[in-house]
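Q: Could you write out the predicted structure for this multi-component system? I'm mainly interested in how the pieces pack against one another.
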Amino acid sequence: MNIEYVGASQIILGALGRFWPVWLSLVIVMGASFHYRKRLGLYGDLYTSGVGIAGVAICLFWTFTAIFSPVIAPFDPLTQIPVMKDVLPGAIVPDGAAGAGGVYLFGGDKLARDVFSRMVAGSQIVLIIAPFATAFALMVGITLGLPAGYYGGRIDSILSFLANLVLAFPVILLFYLLVTPEIRQLSFDNWFSNLTGIGFSIPRTLAAVFFLFPIIFFSVLFYTRFKTRPERLYPLLAATILIGGWVYLGLVFNADPLRVIAIEPSTLNIFVAVVFASSPGVFRIVRGLVMDIKTRDYVAASQTRGETPWYIMLWEILPNARGPLIVDACLRIGYTTILLGTLGYFGLGLAPESPDWGTAIKDASRLLRSAIHPALPPTFALMSFVLGLNLLADALREQALKD
Amino acid sequence: MNEAVKATNIRSAEPILEIENLSISFFTKRGEIPAVMDFSCTVMPGEAMGIVGESGCGKSTVSLGIMRDLSNVGKIVGGRIKFQGKDMGDMTEEELRSVRGNKIAMIYQEPMASLNPAMKIGRQLMEVPLIHDKVSKEEAYNRALAMLKSVRLPDPPRMMNSYPHQLSGGQQQRIVIAMALLSKPALLLLDEPTTALDVTVEAGIVQLVKGLGREFGTSMIFVSHNLGLILETCDKITVMYSGEAVETGNIRDVFDRMRHPYTQGLFRSIPLPGADKNSRPLVAIPGQLPLPHERPKGCNFGPRCHHFVEGVCNAAEIPMIEVAGNPGHFSRCVRFNEIDWAAMPATAAKDVKEPVKAGKPMLKIDDLKKYYKVAANEIFGGAEPRTVKANETISFEARESETVAIVGESGCGKSTLAKILLGLETASGGNVTLGNRSIGDTAIEKRDVETISSIQMVFQNPFDTLNPSHSVGSQIIRTLEKFGIGKTVAERRERMLELLDLVKLPRAFEKRMPRQLSGGQKQRIGVARAFAGMAKVVVADEPVSALDVSVQAAVTELLMDIQRENKTTMLFISHDLSVVRYIADRVVVMYLGYIVEQGTTDQIFSPPYHPYTEALLSAIPIADTSVVKKHIVLEGDIPSAMNPPTGCPFQTRCRWKKFVPGNKCETQVPPIRNLGGGHQSLCWLDDEQLATMEPVIKVGGVDISQAEPHDEVPEGGRRRGKGPGFKGAAPKRPDGKLATPEAGQLAEDFEEGEARARARRHEAGDALSEPGGAAFYDASNAAIPVGRDQVGDGRQAVDPDVMPAGGNEPAPRGAGKGAAPSAKLVSSSRTGGLAGRSAVKSRSSQEAVAKHRGAGVAPARAAAPKPAPAGAKAKPAAKAAIPPAEKGRPAGIAKPRKPDDLKLISGVGPKIEAILNGLGIYTYAQIASWKKAERAWVDGYLRFSGRIEREDWVRQAKALAKGGVEEYVRVFGRKPR
């Protein structure tokens, strides 16, 4: 069967056109932000430099792409239209096949799926895992880094030693270990499993530990601040424990009573692996910042009025470490994205048919000699997103330095 | 200075640096921000110009502008900088590079930041001659070594072989100075070179810097916020405010007869001797420095000025206006002729406050000890832990409403003491009793709320004292919350607003973030926070030292007012003895963990001193021209607390050590000696030696209020003998030895018009009264000891007013008439009709004259400027009077038939030629044969400090003697003049 193609200009226009909800949202959000930039604090300051605007634009572009991906993608990322195997960009689906008349804007891959749609759908996976995994890594790193830096001495030595151990371990090997089926299936079933029927594996145990940190973090945060004001303290604590517990149940035990929060075991794996690998980095940054900030007079001032150590760490020190931490978080989302790509490339973690960018690049790379086009869109997507994050981090750093 | 003189007399001396109407702006996203506007100054060879001003006034920008090192955002938008007659704006990058570091060198505030930590000192120093002069390595090494010797560093070869981090701050700064001098710069820019150093170390650096102009003929621009330092080091001063020079002139003119309200405000807000917290409090300048883009129209100082007149001061931009009858003295004030300079501002407190009465003891510290253990490695263990003794047998008490100052340099243990008091550390031994509770070994977590709130602290650094992430109001409320004050949020807020009122800040500041506040305002919030819980004891750790001068006074006064009202005990930790003398009732001096001396303020500031207190006192720069200070420079640095000296902690630097028999200082810790009235000293010296101690600081002998009834300078500093310890006695002068240097100088000044007297205050401390002090006088001084220790009044000789009278009258006057010539000179200068100017000067010169008359010294050399025959007659008399000065005197000959034209030697004008002829020197050959001793003698004789090296004369004379003009041209590549 002969396949017809549209021209290059039509490919470009078509692709741009498909992103219309993204453009619309971008214009609205960035226009409003630009207009009110004076009142938006650090975020508003980003709009004062070209680098900042570019960074924000790229990051928002991919965020909106992830949000609107069902609207943008013309085809289902997993649907195969057999005639479209390895077609070049701009191929029109011939009559008779499902989805006739549609265009494979960026061509088809070796399993006859639409590359464009897969790229768009892949953004969703990347943009969910990367920021959240980074957020959890931040929580873990901060919660351990604060006491290490503040108390110093033995606590610091032990925690730093552990962090160094993790950092010293080759990351890829670590991931292999964490996500290989054999290790995944190593069972640590105990009385709890017998009772509830929930099996314990290494990833799940790690998840159980890691996901506890945000709950601890917020509880301590509110407790130290509002200890003398019970009318504020109790509602906040209750909210933290309720929401935290609900998410915890859903993520770790897959036992959300409302059946809203659920996570694929393979995704959980990736999640845990990424948190495990990047929290020592955050730990070290936080520790260094705390060691610097704790020598400031305002810390001594809060000590002399009898504040508890955790109050000082969370309310006096941490807010002043936010600048470098925000910058680091941005960069770290980028690294995590690359890491996800790497994992996908090695075929670790996510399902083989998953449209995420790493897996897509791996699939395409096998047949790179015969057809290069399926490899390019996910590569560019990955690159541009990480670039956007780096630009954003650069601009944030600039702004943070000004204060 | 001396524009008039320049105009009339001299053409010969080229200024090293001429800045004309310099304007520098920074270009940022917000647009152009002018940092310096219309700045002009002239620096002559060998002269030191001080630039003084508060932070943000543009003084550092000026020095960077001279270096043309304004990063990429700064630009010179107007005016010219001429260096050695060449416009730096016309220089190419290449030329600029060869000027920087070679002809202009810069010394920055942080010595560590100026040295490469990865390179040995020797290599860094050698780089300079290697790069600039392209000499061999060996030669470079020798030059570096010699330079290290001349900046008086101990053990230069070892220094050459060490890394910067192995040296102390003071040593590092000396290295930086050595590096700057290695290229023999014509101009040295010093940007707050001692701010990061301790006072006693600073004193050493100041001594060194002072001698530079003399030794190397280097001109200097000395940027500082410290008026006292400027007075000690500079000849001229420029006061800057908000990007403009507001006043410039001779040091003495500006210090004694300032003609700009800002300058006067500055002087009123620093605690000079004579200020008293009860009867004569400091007067702060209201308001704050305008932001660069919010400068007012007309006078920048207008909004803060007491003399502001609508429509006059803010009508137009104000140029620098010359002060009539006072050439070289300019002020950027349109009204300075109308202002009554003696009047105190209306806002100043007129009423004399009752001195506070100390109540019952609040805080008792008894035999307190604090040792730290320094372990090697936490996880793996390792080397034996070492002990650092931060505090050792500290005992004193503080009573209600009393201010006790704790004085000492960094590392003396005063901060550790504060930490123990506040519970951040616990004592290793001894007792601390607050009220009736023992708190010494109770850590802060274990203290109850009442104890915590009754002892609070005001911190040093205003930029650090408030958490930048929380609003001002919420930080105070949090404190109240912790202290259990107020039951509801609303009550606490109400109390917080009251506290804002208490520290005189608007209530709207509640919502402000700390970054929106100025330093002084932040410090006020810090005070409010400390007094939030009705503290009984407040520990103030250098609360004003990081603030600008004009704000310091306001915060100090506020702190004392609140203390007075609440009957609070204040422990005032400081290294600045002038503030301490002003604020404290009792003083505790600490050194290396020990209390070395304690007593009332009077006791501490008058002899007998502890040797360390004596050194500290002499190290404070005092911005008062009438103060006579003994100069004691301590050798070395504070020993490390890790490795303290045996015996007395101060023995390594003590200049009195040799008076204690039996080597006791080095072996045993001295006992605490009671000197009566609660005055205690930790010293082995016995009563006899203590009795020989002289006051370190004396306020000058003459009462200016009598001499200048029309010009009474009102602030405390001008009142003699008010403050404790500053005796009103006349400065000790080397009587009768004055005539010589003065007259010589006079003569020379006629000739050159701008030679500067180097020492600008009475320095009573001469080599003899300084047994342990470093002998900072070079050979030329040794030759004429008196000449160097010139009395401050000697400055009158440089007085421009006097000059025209004498200068226009070169005709020989009767020589050898004893005192007459100089007296006549003075009177002629007065009759010369220079009104209202020379009150002080002529009076003091008369005094000087009277003195040498009285002493019966034939002032032979007063006549020396006059021609030859006189010289012969006068000589014997001079010999009899001043024998040591004759050592090294070049041999004279009778006037030959055809004397050489000595004027061909550059640096010798007709006047100097006449002087030389007077000495019997007529030929090149004679000068060519001068050795070092002769050169030094002539140096001292001519009082021609540093301007031209006599060595150079000798070289020139040699050439001229050998082959006349042709030879000269061959050697020097130019024609003799």
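A: Regarding packing and overall arrangement: The two ends of chain B are 26 Å apart (CA to CA).
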